Amino acid sequence: MSPDRAMGYANMHALRFLSSRRWRCGVPGVAVRGKRPYWYAVTITWNHSPGNLPMPYPADVVLFDLDGTLIDTIPDLADALDWMLARMDRPAAGPDKVRIWIGNGMDKLLQRALRDADGADPSAALMDRARELFRERYGRHFCERSCLYEGTEACLAALSAAGIGLGIVTNKPTQFTEPLLETLGIRGYFGAVLGGDALPERKPDPTPLFEAVRRIDPEASRVVMVGDSVNDIEAARRAGYPVICLTYGYNHGQDIRDGRPDAVIDSLRELPALIEGVSGS
Question: Could you give the residue numbers annotated as active site?
């Protein structure tokens, strides 16, 4: 298939010339394969004239997920979960399982751990006990080994310096989210922080995204979502926002590219270059 023919497959196209099979921006579209190097037809839906690749993205507000996007929280989450399981006479789960289980809020994490241990869905009484134990341990040790990903603070500083409003929308309970941000020294960058219990709705419902934007800048019309999972992609799609994803996050063991985000990056150091008006973009 020729590149010209591949370009006819969508309403809006961009053809990027890459030296390897791995692409770093754009939704994986039609792979036009010949001799190396490869050409990739990348399809992006955007309100621009056809033929223009909308990069960098214009943004009044950038929203971030938390766990697996800004902060590596697996060590402390796994510790708290295994402590809880031990006191419920269940075997430890370990960080590898926790990495796959997290992303849908605390209750889902606990349900998955107990289901894995027992082979059946936990009762309401069992869940109540699990919540009590997990909150006890994690509330005291939420930031023993959790740390910012490489490039996180430099990215936030660059976006903030450009006058872009920043927010966090996470399914993590607020009682853990706020102290974690404060302890790691990045709370001040964010005009809004919505934990998973801040509203009746949570991601992938887009309502928390809309509320975060309202709190940051009610007049904002250009919003970009940054995350690491299919929950972030679905929430952004339903909100009508472009979404940029990190390769290193917690996406239930799946390659984030399979979710077809608008762009994929390896480090938050790469994000400022994708946002219009940020120094270096």
Answer: 65
